[in-house]
Amino acid sequence: MSPHSINQEDEIKRIFAQIGGISLHKDFTEPIMSELYIQQQKQQPVKHNHLSGIKNRHKTWLLASLSTAAGIILITSLFTSSSMAASLQQIPVLQSIFQLAGDLGLYRAANENLSDHPNAVASIGDITVTVPEVVYDGNRVSLSLIRTAAGSSASMSLRDQISNIDIWVDGINVQASDSGNSVPIFSFPGADDNSAIIEFADLSNQGGEPFPDQFDLTLHLSMNGFKDPLSLSVPVTITSGDHIEIKPSISKDYGNLTFRLKKIELTPITTNITTAISLPEELVYDQAANGIAFDVLDEKGNKLQTLTGNGYNEAGSNTFVSDMRYHPFPEIPEKIILRPYKYIYSDSTHTTFAQDEEGNIIVEYLPQLDIEISLEDFL
Fold first, then answer.
1. Residue 194, Cβ neighbours under 10 Å: how many?
2. Residue that finishes a domain, picked among 190, 212, 237
3. Residue 157: which of 47, 22, 81 has the closest Cα?
4. Residue 206 and residue 317 in one domain
5. In a domain, 46, yes or no
6. CA angle 298, 268, 193 (to 5 degrees)
7. From the centroid of its chain, how far is CA 39?
8. Same domain membership, residue 279 and residue 167
9. Nearest residue to 306 (alpha-carbon basis) of 325, 291, 323
10. Based on the domain organization, do 212 and 102 belong to the same domain?
């Protein structure tokens, strides 16, 4: 199939959502939300917990080998025009940080009372950090943070001041793993420099233990300018909203590669897609050579936007399993369609994306791997 061009900003967002080192913020909309604010939010880069990223060569994140090339392209898309900034100043400020996240799922969580309000608080030096909101839908745990600061701490944003995040679930450090596959933590902009959103998910679809429906979460925030971390304890309970889980186990082949849809999870907050890419047993999976991305659409052709993702394959393994998280469908669709594609590179080392005349990334769709399921066949 002939190559297609994909909007550079949209694809860079997807790429950084799929690698372990960095993600881009989300840009999902709902009529009641301000489009101007969303456009501003989607151009802010996201920091990732540096110590919970790739810890050895066996931990393979989707497109991780392309992070350098993607980072270079990213530089051109992180600025907001002065006219947009002026417009943003006129937007009323909502009280909930989740409502300002540019994430339809978090907006729903706040607007439909699906989130909890622990108001956990801790201080260190001239800093006080509060957790006003938390939501867990079985797919991702999201928390908002608010900081009050004085002195030198006030001169930097909260996200810049947090140098590392460690998490414990019921007293167990879920980032400690002998296999090298540990829980990634993503950080997103909040309403202003004194707020942020952090997010993480379990590895239950990749051989790890699922989080319980109710647990005590402990956060250790390492803060620039302070020797000791700031510690917060947050009770977490799974939401009561609808949770649909189906396991189609549908496979498609492309050459010596098999693409398998293992699981789809739908909640009012998140769409989670679990897939596996496999090669013959005598071959070793290589992300740069064998990696595949995919669009997720409904029967009307509406495409979901990417939130975050993580993936893993054991050393020497021929299979790569990944979870990709997307914003929720506005309503339960009749069909869910996956349209896989591969990236086209301009060099033999698979580190530089090919681009068209307008700077958009060139990809090649693989219709042989398209998967379409009717939900009524599984519900």
1. 17
2. 237
3. 47
4. no
5. no
6. 110
7. 18
8. no
9. 325
10. yes
265 & 369 share domain: yes
Do 105 and 147 reside in the same domain of the chain? Answer: yes
225 lies in the same domain as 139: yes
User: CA 194 to CA 191: how far, in whole Å?
Assistant: 8
pLDDT tens digits, the chain, 379 residues: what are they?
556 655 555 555 555 444 443 333 333 223 223 332 333 333 333 443 433 332 222 333 333 333 333 333 332 232 333 333 333 333 334 469 999 989 999 999 999 999 999 999 999 999 999 999 999 999 999 999 999 988 878 889 999 999 999 999 999 998 865 555 678 899 999 999 999 999 999 999 988 889 999 999 999 999 999 999 999 999 999 998 789 999 998 999 999 999 999 999 999 999 999 999 999 988 888 877 778 899 999 999 999 999 999 888 777 789 999 999 999 999 999 999 999 999 888 887 777 888 988 888 899 999 999 999 999 998 8
> Coil, strand or helix: which one is 279?
coil
Residue 289 lies in a domain: yes
**DSSP letter string, 161-225:** HEEEEEEEETTEETT--TTS----EEEEE-SSTTEEEEEE---GGGTSPPPPSEEEEEEEEEETT
343 vs 353: CA distance, rounded Å = 7
The string of DSSP letters for 355-368 reads B-TTSPEEEEE-GG
341 plus 307 within the same structural domain: yes
Strands of 229-316 (E only): list them.
230-237, 244-246, 250-254, 257-266, 271-278, 293-298, 306-312
> What is the extent of the structural domain holding 224?
82-237
Phi-psi region of 125 (alpha: psi -120 to 50; beta: other; left: phi over 0): left
Tell whether 16 is covered by a domain.
no
- Tell me which of 215, 237, 259 is where a domain ends: 237
Tell me, yes or no, whether 228 and 98 share the same domain. yes
The Cα 253–Cα 272 span in angstroms is 22
| In a domain? residue 21 | no
Question: What one-letter code names the amino acid at 53?
Answer: G
CATH code, domain with 228 = 2.60.40.1630
